UniProtKB/TrEMBL annotation:
Protein name per its UniProtKB record: Putrescine importer PuuP
Lineage: Bacteria, Pseudomonadati, Pseudomonadota, Gammaproteobacteria, Pseudomonadales
Pfam hit, one: AA_permease
Ranges of residues in domain Amino acid permease/ SLC12A: 26-394
Entry's transmembrane regions: 20-42, 54-75, 96-119, 125-148, 160-181, 203-224, 236-255, 283-307, 328-352, 358-377, 389-408, 414-432
Superkingdom per UniProt: Bacteria
Keywords, ordered alphabetically: Membrane, Transmembrane, Transmembrane helix
Major subcellular location class: membrane
Organism for this UniProt entry: Pseudomonas putida (Arthrobacter siderocapsulatus)
Coiled coil: none
GO biological process, one term: transmembrane transport
Compartments, as annotated in UniProt: Membrane
Protein's UniProt keywords contain Transmembrane helix: yes
Amino acid sequence: MTKQHSTTAAAGDDQLRRVLGLPALVFFGLVYMVPLTIFTTYGIVTETTGGRTAGAYLVTLAAMLFTAASYGIMVKRFPVAGSAYSYTNIAFGPNVGFLAGWSLLLDYLFIPMINYLLIGLFLNIAFPAVPAWVFVLVCIALVTVLNVMGIRSVAKASNLIVGAQVIFIVVFIALSCHSLGNGPVDWLAPLAGDGSKPGFDPLMAGAAVLCLSFLGFDAVSTLAEETRDARRDVPRAIMLTTLVAGALFTLLAYLSQLAIPGSHFDNADAAANEVMLQIGGQFLANFFTAAYVAGSLGSALASQAAVSRIIYSMGRDRLLPERFFGTLSARFGTPVNATLLVSAVSLIALVISLETLASLISFGALVAFSAVNMAVLRTHLLAKGQPKNLLLHGVVPLVGLALTLWLWTSLSSLTLTIGLIWFAIGIAYLLVLTGGFRRNVKVADFSEAG
């Protein structure tokens, strides 16, 4: 890989501030993933699996842990910002790294947007006199200010939001357990189902949908250059975030299924409301709405922080205009210009539909997951002169890659079409940057990270 210039956080004055520890990283990852996101697809997956949502979550968690382990392996050796973009860059060179980063942008740019859209929809239902676009604009402004002020502000706000959701989860669990004392309970029903959709295929179909719940554990890796001990804490945070979120998803799905056995709802999209009303009445339904909106705000906060650092990393490497995107604010030490760009793109939430937006998120994430698993194989198992662990550097990424490729089969034709169009635009831009592939794109020097 050609070393054009050295501008990493390890060298020079223009660097991100290392202020984060393990607890802050785990909170950041949990906020990004939104613990209450289970209720977004709960009704759909329950009907798909025949009442086996909790079992489907266990399948999904097992699959995600392999890719999470691959992220941990890469960040332990290369503690740099940029996530899958940087790892692919290191493993396969700058041109392939650029295409991985370009695909990853599709995922990361739309995650803040979908949170703003959800906030507007939910708050408009609660306060119909206020148009949804007002809530969207206020949230974009608030999140932008917090991200410009610095990662400490993001971490503090993230802690508060996770705290609010933890309180809701505790109340939900307590009321669920109380409601189960009113009659006989089939404790195996959430795993065995109601018999309406027997077999393994429906369970796997539900698990494929639930992979969306885990999008974001990789966002922790984007904060590697702002972590005090990145090689130790970031891999731990990635695994802890995945495990804690998966356990929460499974527990909440299990209790919800016990509260309302079976797999049929009056409205599958709003099944969460039926669950809340059954368990705790209108009080719990209102509490859920407040906690869900808070979680969406926190996810927007964390996801905007993550994508702005990916854009900064690509600008620093001169893959995007360096003078605008590859610099940090002298006052706040944050990528302000990249943050403002993400906010501007998020304004599309004012005009796009939820269904269309939701269909665009998976493509970039699955590209990133595949790229990171292959990067582990390239930089560890196949690299000369490096210590090798066949299980850790071979079996783990190969299983992660196989499971990720299997998930591609669950993508809709619309998602594949738009994703491939985005990828084609990236190739066209790369042609311009490289003069028709006659040279490599310019990249940062990652040698100190290795």
